[in-house]
Structures are given as structure tokens and as C-alpha cells.
TrEMBL record:
It comes from the Eukaryota. Keywords: Coiled coil. InterPro entries: CFAP99. It comes from Oryzias latipes. Residues 194-213, 561-595 are annotated as: Disordered. Residues 568-578 have a biased composition (Basic residues). This is Cilia and flagella associated protein 99. Residues 328-418, 471-517 form a coiled coil.
């Protein structure tokens, strides 16, 4: 099967452009990006290889951009990274497929990059690679295979150079010959036309960013969450309504206490300060109630009948029929809940057993993997120690050089500090002199200037006006006006206070009448409430004597006892399990330490792999 390697390489370069190592992991990105791509294995190998060997490939590409590729665009960086990685797998691809890939990407850029890459392979690139990875590994696995392919690559580069020269042939430049013109007095010199000035180009206004007119994502997410919560609340409310219709639950102690408090509040056991409008409203309501009561009494006096007694009897009969049904429904619902709880506990027991088995299997696997990782880490530590011993001599030489440089810097800094201190003292003396001069000037300016300007309040200004008066007379007149205005304001205040007191007395009388009316209504309501409670107690006694209700209650007690027995059996099993598995404190401490060491080694291995 002949593969189109050029198109596959372009797809892999596109994946490299869209990948960001800081944002997402390699596995997650590959699962998302390669869902619709064909020839996944080839693209996956190239893409993952480029990301795993990123440091080594960046060394070559950065050096190329620093020297020969200064004029190249940074957008083509991933193309150079991909071609650099493909040179490592020339044995698998072959020269023909490799040349097809280069032609599909671009001949000019690839020619300059490959020329730089293979010419500096044994010098700067080898030195940089050996600083990242072991030098022996670099020479065996990377440089020696590339050196074997270098003559064939040079032949390919010569072919590429020939193609570029054929594509861009040099144009022959034809030089114009100057032709002399005859000079004539009769022909005047043509007048130069003024070149029209071009209108100034206005700077293009920056478009308004879309983020201004677009609401942020967080707002949409919050709206969706609110809608979901609202839907859940509606469903919960509907379920509660259905439950209330099916079951008529008994009143709890808190509800009874609340009803008592509400009855006290409605009875008006404490005084509330009301507004004038509220008092008038209450008075109108009381008048309306009195009129209704008078009309009812007139109707009874004329021989009319009240329908309330028949309706009350009808309600009592309905409640007597419905009470046993509601009691049965309540008990059936409780029995159903208890059975569901029993089934749930049995399922939980099964799930716990299966989970414990899987945990034990995972623990064994983790222990085996951790032991392998510890062995690998020990080997790596030995290699690191060998490398560190070789680098010790260079470190000592660097430290000596640092110490020499530090002594020289200290001597120079001490001399410079002395010079700076001398200059600072000279400037400080100059500033002190200036400060003294400024202080003297300020003292002279702050001396008071004595000015004689006698002024008589009792004399006029002498401007010759009709109603001209002295300043003292004007002040006296103003004081008299103020006194008159204050007296007028006090009279007004007294009048307003008297009217307010009259209105308050009237409102107080109305309030007393309203309170009497409300007390009478509260007493009547209390009598009705006691009668209603007595009826409900009678109905409840009838329901308690029903045989079907008693049978359901017995069944409920049996299910509750079975559930409690299950719970006690669980607790006893858990205690026995903890007693058997508990060892000595020293053994448990050793186990915890070993597990901690295994977890730490696993985390280190994963970080190194990433």
C-alpha cells in the first residue's frame, strides 16, 4: 500500500501547531485530534516523537534561527522540528519517501535547514545534545546513523538546489543607451506640472473586540445552573404536593407550638403602634363586620336559617370516612420506605465486598510496579553519582574563579563608596547653607506690617444716596427683623402642636373601640377552636380502633425490627474484622512507611516520564 507521506506530514505539522503542552496532556489531545484522521499510527508516532524529544529538536531549530534562518518566518518552526525528527527514522522511511515529504512542504526552506543541520552535526549540535543526554548514547543512536546517511542527503540537497535554480531563472538586464537631443532657441522649455498632493491616509481604526459585546462564558454557565436548580425545585415541589395529597401527616410538636404562638398574636396580646391610615382602615373594617353581623341577626329574627350547621355536619362525616383511608396510606408508604431501605443496605453489602476484592488486587499490582520502579531508580542514582564525580573537578575550578572575581569586585566597590560618601558630604553642606538663607527670608517676610486705618461705624459713607445710613444702624435694624421672624415661627409651632394633640386623642379613642371588637372576635375564635379539637380527637379514636390500620402498624414494626437486626449484624462483623486485622503498632508503622515510600517513588517516575 503506497502512502502519501507528504499529506500525512502536513497533518502532523498542523497538530503540532495546535498543541499546547501547558494547557493539556499529550494523551488527551491525541484522543480528541485523531478521531477523524486516517493512517493514525504514522501520525501518532511522528507527533508523539516530536513532543517526547522536544528538548533535542529545539536545540537544532533554535541554532538554525540564530544563524542561517534569521530571515525565516517563525510560523514554519514546526516544519523544521518535524523534518529534524524524521531524519532519525530514515532507515524505516527511505530516501525517496523523505524527498517526497520535503518537496510537499517547501524546497527552499528545507534546503537551507538541511544544509545547516548536516554541516554542523559533528560540532555544535553534538556538543549541545551531549550536555542534555549521555554522550555515548548520543553518538551511538543519533550521530552515527545520521553520518551514514550524510552523503546521500548531500546528493539530495544538490538536486534541490538544481530545482530551485530552474524555477527562478535570472532575467537578462537590458541597459538603455542615452540618445542626445538637439538644442533649439525657438522651443520653450515645457512648464513643470505641479504634482497634486495625496490626501493624508487616515489610520485604520481598531475594530471593537468581540469580548465587549459578548457576555462572558461564566454568565451562561451560571444561567444554566440556575435553570437546572429551578427545574429540580419544581420537581421537588410537585413530589411534595403529591405526597401531601396521598398522605395526611400528623402535626409535629413544632407545628403545634407555632399554632399556639399564632393564636396569641392574632388575639392581640401585645400593643402595636399603628399609623393614622392603618387605624382608619381598621375602623372601616370593624364597621363593615358590625353591619354584616346586624344583617345576619335581622335575617334570623325574620325566620331565616343558617346553612353552617348542615355544612359542619357534612364535613364531619366526610372526615370520618376519609381518616382511616389516609391513615392506611401513611402506614403503607412507611412500610414501602422501610423495605426500600432494607434492599438498599443489602446492595451496599454486595458492593462493599466486590470493592474490597478489587482493592486487594490493585494493591498487589501497585506493590509489584513500585518494586520495579525502586530498582530502576537505584540504577539511575548510580549513573548520576558517576556523572557527578566527573563534574566535581570543573566545579572546584569555577568556584576559585568566582572567589577571585568577588575579591576584585569588593575592592572596587569600597573605593567607589568612599568617593560617593565625600561627594554626599559636600552636597549636604551646600544644602544646609541654602536652607539657612531660605529660613532667614521667610522670617523677614513673616514680620507684621502695621497699617493705620481708623473706621467709625456711626458715620455714613458720604456717597450722597437718599436712604444712606451708618453701619451700626443697619445692624440694629437687621437684629430687630430677626427677632420678629422668630416670634412668628414660635406661634406657628404652638398652633401645629395643639392640632396634633387633638388628632392623637381622636385616634386613641378609635383604637380603644377597635381593640374591644378584636377581643370579642378572638374569644369567639377560641371557642370554635376548642370545639374543633374535641371533634378531631373523637375521629382519631375511631381510626385507632380500625382492624386494617392495626395490622399495617404491626407490619411496619416487624420491618423496622428486621432492619435494626441487619444493622447490628453489620456492626458486629466490622468489629470482628478490625480485631483480626489489627497488628502490633510497630508492624502498622512499618507498613505505612513502606506504602509512603512506594507512592513517592511512583510519583517521581511519572514526573520523569512526563
Amino acid at each position: 500500500m503506497n502512502l502519501n507521506y507528504g499529506s500525512l506530514v502536513k497533518k502532523a505539522i498542523g497538530l503540532l501547531d495546535t498543541f499546547g503542552s501547558k494547557i493539556q496532556s499529550l494523551d488527551a489531545f491525541m484522543e480528541e485530534a485523531l478521531q477523524d484522521l486516517q493512517q493514525r499510527n504514522f501520525i501518532l508516532d511522528i507527533f508523539s516523537g516530536c513532543i517526547e524529544n522536544k528538548k533535542q529538536l529545539d536545540v537544532v531549530v533554535n541554532a538554525f534561527y540564530a544563524t542561517n534562518g534569521k530571515l525565516m518566518s517563525r510560523r514554519d518552526r514546526n516544519q523544521f522540528v518535524m523534518i529534524c525528527y524524521l531524519t532519525f527514522s530514515l532507515d524505516d522511511l527511505g530516501l525517496q519517501n523523505f524527498s517526497n515529504m520535503i518537496e510537499s512542504i517547501g524546497i527552499k526552506n528545507m534546503y537551507t535547514f538541511l544544509n545547516f543541520y548536516f554541516s554542523n552535526l559533528t560540532s555544535s549540535i553534538k556538543h549541545e545534545w551531549s550536555s542534555i543526554i549521555d554522550a555515548a548514547f548520543v553518538e551511538e543512536h543519533w550521530i552515527n546513523p545520521l553520518l551514514r546517511w550524510r552523503p546521500e542527503i548531500y546528493n539530495l540537497l544538490s538536486q534541490l538546489a538544481a530545482k530551485t535554480s530552474q524555477d527562478n531563472p535570472k532575467k537578462k538586464v537590458t541597459t538603455k543607451v542615452t540618445v542626445p537631443q538637439e538644442f533649439s532657441f525657438s522651443k520653450p522649455k515645457p512648464r513643470l506640472l505641479s504634482v497634486p498632493e495625496l490626501p493624508p491616509e487616515h489610520e485604520k481604526t481598531k475594530p471593537v473586540p468581540s469580548s465587549i459585546h459578548r457576555s462572558p462564558k461564566e454568565m451562561h454557565i451560571l444561567k444554566e445552573i440556575k435553570e437546572k436548580k429551578h427545574q429540580k425545585a419544581e420537581l421537588f415541589y410537585e413530589a411534595n404536593l403529591k405526597q401531601i395529597r396521598m398522605e395526611n401527616p400528623l402535626k409535629s410538636e413544632s407545628s403545634e407550638v407555632f399554632e399556639k404562638l399564632w393564636s396569641r398574636l392574632s388575639a392581640g396580646s401585645f400593643s402595636v403602634k399603628l399609623n393614622k391610615a392603618a387605624i382608619l382602615r381598621r375602623e372601616a373594617l370593624c364597621d363593615q363586620q358590625l353591619e354584616q353581623e346586624l344583617q345576619r341577626q335581622e335575617w334570623l329574627m325574620q325566620g331565616g336559617l343558617e346553612p353552617s350547621a348542615f355544612l359542619q355536619w357534612q364535613r364531619e362525616m366526610l372526615t370520618r370516612d376519609q381518616l382511616p383511608m389516609t391513615e392506611k396510606k401513611q402506614l403503607e408508604a412507611q412500610i414501602r420506605d422501610e423495605r426500600i431501605a432494607l434492599a438498599r443496605e443489602q446492595i451496599m453489602d454486595r458492593n462493599q465486598k466486590t470493592a474490597q476484592q478489587t482493592k486487594e488486587e490493585i494493591a498487589q499490582l501497585m506493590q509489584e510496579i513500585a518494586e520495579e520502579r525502586i530498582q530502576e531508580e537505584q540504577k539511575k542514582k548510580e549513573l548520576v553519582q558517576q556523572v557527578a564525580e566527573s563534574h566535581k573537578n570543573t566545579k572546584e575550578a569555577k568556584e576559585k574563579l568566582k572567589k577571585l572575581k568577588q575579591t576584585i569586585v569588593k575592592e572596587v566597590s569600597e573605593e567607589s563608596q568612599e568617593l560617593l560618601f565625600q561627594a554626599f558630604e559636600e552636597k549636604q553642606a551646600e544644602l544646609c547653607k541654602r536652607f539657612e538663607m531660605i529660613h532667614e527670608n521667610h522670617a523677614k517676610q513673616s514680620l507684621p506690617r502695621i497699617r493705620l486705618n481708623p473706621f467709625d461705624d456711626t458715620k455714613t459713607a458720604g456717597h450722597g444716596l437718599l436712604e444712606e445710613m451708618p453701619l451700626a444702624e443697619l445692624r440694629l435694624r437687621l437684629d430687630l427683623l430677626k427677632m420678629e421672624r422668630q416670634e412668628e415661627e414660635q406661634e406657628r409651632r404652638m398652633h401645629i402642636l395643639q392640632e396634633k394633640q387633638k388628632q392623637e386623642e381622636l385616634l386613641q379613642k378609635r383604637l380603644e373601640a377597635i381593640e374591644l371588637h378584636s377581643r370579642a372576635l378572638a374569644e369567639a375564635a377560641a371557642i370554635r377552636r376548642t370545639e374543633k379539637q374535641a371533634r378531631q380527637e373523637l375521629l382519631q379514636q375511631l381510626v385507632n380502633k380500625d382492624d386494617s390500620v392495626l395490622a399495617l402498624r404491626k407490619e411496619l414494626e416487624q420491618t423496622k425490627q428486621a432492619r435494626q437486626q441487619l444493622k447490628q449484624a453489620k456492626k458486629s462483623k466490622a468489629k470482628a474484622h478490625s480485631a483480626t486485622h489489627m497488628g502490633t503498632p510497630s508492624q502498622t508503622g512499618l507498613k505505612e512507611r513502606s506504602w509512603e515510600e512506594l507512592e513517592q517513588s511512583l510519583s517521581r517516575f511519572i514526573q520523569n516520564k512526563l
